[in-house]
Structures are given as C-alpha cells and as structure tokens.
Amino acid sequence: MAVKTKSALALLGGQKIREGKKFPAWPQYGKNEANGLLRVLNSGVWGYGGTETEKFEKAFAEYQHCKYCVTMTNGSNTLRNALLACGIEAGAEVIVPPYTFLATATSVIEANCVPVFADIDPDTYCIDPKQIEAAITPRTKAIIPVHLGGQAADMDKIMKIAKKYKLYVIEDCAHAHGAEYKGKRVGSIGDIGSFSFQSSKNLCSGEGGAIVSNNKELADKCWSIQNCGRVRDGAWYQHENLGSNYRLSQFQAVILNEQLKKLDKETEKREQNGTYLDKKLSLIPGIRPLARKKESTRLAYHLYLFRYDAKVFGIPRKTFLAALTAEGIPACEGYSTLIYQQPFMVKKQFASFTEWKHTNKSLDYTKTKCPVAEKAASGEGCWMHQSVLLGTKKDMDDIAAAIAKVYENRKELTNYKK
Ligand SMILES: Cc1ncc(COP(=O)(O)O)c(C=O)c1O
User: Which of 70, 68, 63 lies closest to 253 in space, CA to CA?
Assistant: First the structure.
C-alpha cells in the first residue's frame, strides 16, 4: 500500500514531477568522433603539424563570419593572449562585467593589466554600456563584453564607446558559439572574439579554445603567441615574439570538426525550446526569464537563465532550487559570488602580477559596487545548462510544471531548513 504523503512537493516527501526520467547527457558523441580519434591516433601526428587543427580553424572562422581563427589550449588563455596581441601595456585598465566566469577578469590580471568592473543590464545580465562609459579613465585600453548565456551583449553601443575612446574590444564568446547580433556572428564585431571548448560548452572537445578575428595582424600575433613566439613563415627556432605553447592537439581538433557539423541543428533545438520555455515560465508569478533583445537574432543558449523573485515566493533561492531539484529539474544558482568578491581579489593576491605602478596602492575591490550583478548573484539568477534544452517539448513542460508546483506549494517551504 502506498504511503500517503502530507505534501505534494517532492522535497517534503511527495511525488516527483520527473521520476526516473533523465535530461539529455552532455557531451554527446557518436561513431564519427570515435573514428576520428582513431584516425589521428594511427596517423602518428598528434600535435603540431596535423591537418585537423587547420581544417577546424578554417571552418570555425567561416562559421563565426570571420577571416581568421587560431586555436589554443582553452578559453582563458585565448583572452589573455588576445590582450597581449592587441599590445595592451602593463598597468592598463580593461573593463569587464563581474557576472561571468572568473577567466574574463583573471585573463586581464595575467596580461599584467587591471580589471575594472562595470555592472550588468538587469534584463539581459550582459554588461551595461552606460556603466562601461562611467568606468572609463585615461588608462582604459580595452573592453571585454561577455555574451552571457549565449545572448549577444549590446554591441552597437559598445563599439560606439570603443570608437569614441579608442579602445580595443575583445568579445568573450565562451557561451555563444554561433550566436548572432543583428545577423552578425559574435566574435566578428569587435577586434577579437574568444571561444572556449571546455566540456560544458555548446561546442566542446574536453578542453580547448580559439580566437577569431577579421584583422590579419592581430590573428597572426595570436598565432605567434600560442606557438612559442614563432612566425608563420619563420624557422622552428626563430622566436620573434614572447609566447609559449598554447597549442591545441589534433585529438581535440578532430572532435571539434565532428561536433561543428552538429552545432546548427543543436542550436536550433535549444532556441526552439528556450523560446517555448520563456513563454511558459513568464506565466508563473515571481519568475522572469531574461529578456531577449530584438538585436539578438540568434541566441546560442549556453545557459537557460531566469530571474527568481524571493519576495513573491516567500522563500530564498536556495530553498526554491532545492525544491526544484527534488522534482527532477537540474537547476542551480550559477555565479553566486561575483569576481570582485572572490577572496583573492579582495586580498589582491596577484602573485607576480603587481606591476601596476599607478594603481596598485589605491586598488581596492571591496569598494567596487555593481548592484545589479550583486542582486543576480546573491538571490535572483537561476540557471539550467544548455543540454536541458536538447530535450523534448514534454521535458520543457515538466520544467514549467515543476516551477509552477513549487510556486503553488511555496507556503509549505516557509520554515524549510536543510
Ligand atoms: C564566460 C567565460 N569566459 C571564459 C571562460 C574560460 O574558458 P576555459 O574554461 O576554456 O578556460 C569560460 C569558461 O567557463 C567562460 O564561461
């Protein structure tokens, strides 16, 4: 005989919305990836000199509407090396958003520059151009907008500011493979676009990264930096620039070549499901999906992000997410600590990167205030990973049903303690 539970909520012993049903796994692969790996293995050319990297660089440059692509070890080194390629000198300030993965700012420190944080737009969680302009000083040399979750940042305004103040723009496209702003693929709008192919990314090879650009000089400089300072037509032991080994292996490149073939189909699916979910979740009180700007002509949905209002639900985000997870929906709080709040930033623990003569003494990240980002991190932002959006329409209905169920039964969670 079934035990009668007091609550409908799975967290309190009720029946789950999704019992024994899984969302699609990530990464996804098949025979083509396996055969490709074997092909590289048997070729004996596993690193520099293989054809897979070259093939991928050509295809990915084209995919992102760019002339050039240079692969690298990951999407952190790509950002650092892009800054170096632009010739941003030590101590220069680079404007970044605080609601992003650590690397957007640490790459700046690793390029011996100073990250300066500009708040995000409350509707898109991407960097707010008004806040960029307010953060500019005579030492500002570059902006790194992040196309957060796969939606392009406000690039028209960002490029206008960059032109006015003569700043470089390095687009952090780690979440945005194939995303478009007014029909242009991200990475093709600023000076350099930076991508990550780390396991969770929409295009992935375990680890890996690439820069794209329409500027030959910058792309060649990136190529040189990732290949120990060599130059394309130079000799093996001719090091024209300071660089290191940031090269991608042929194993990673062969996987990327296979994964790239599937990216369009997957992006369409994510976009279909994301748009459907936007409509369904907007009907639930206290839940607001991020706004999609009309300029965002193709959204890559690396994350499905929505805003949670703890006042409407009467319970903190942590409890809401625990209840949702118990229903079988894999949602999380995402970036819950902003970069400038991280202990090493507060302590200015930058190892040898302390050559910022004019700024270092006065630099104090505890004085940085980005209220919109702080609200998103501390209790408003909720995330689901892109693989969830590769599910069926029924899977999306389950997500909406579970959130609605938590809302309807929210009062039972008022005194919930883990
Ligand atoms: C926005 C953003 N930028 C940069 C990176 C760094 O990429 P990688 O992990 O390949 O170094 C990530 C990775 O998660 C990211 O999310």
Answer: 70
| Boundaries of domain holding 244 | 31-259
The yes-or-no answer on residue 64 being catalytic is: no
From 119, 172, 191, 395, the catalytic residue? 172
- C-alpha of residue 15 to centroid of ligand 1, in Å: 37
Test site for ligand 1: of 101, 109, 186, most ligand atoms within 8 A of the Cβ: 101
95 part of a folded domain: yes
> Against a cut of 0.85, is the pTM above it?
yes
Q: What is the CATH number of the domain that holds 244?
A: 3.40.640.10
Three-state secondary-structure class, residue 247: coil
User: Could you confirm whether 177 is annotated as catalytic?
Assistant: no
Give mean pLDDT, residues 7-16.
Answer: 96
Q: Does residue 312 sit in helix, strand or coil?
A: helix
Q: Is 44 left (phi over 0), alpha (psi -120 to 50) or beta?
A: left
* Domain contains 283: no
Active site residue 101: yes
Q: Percent of the chain scored above 70 by pLDDT?
A: 96
Domains identified in the chain, total number: 1
Does some domain include residue 142? Answer: yes
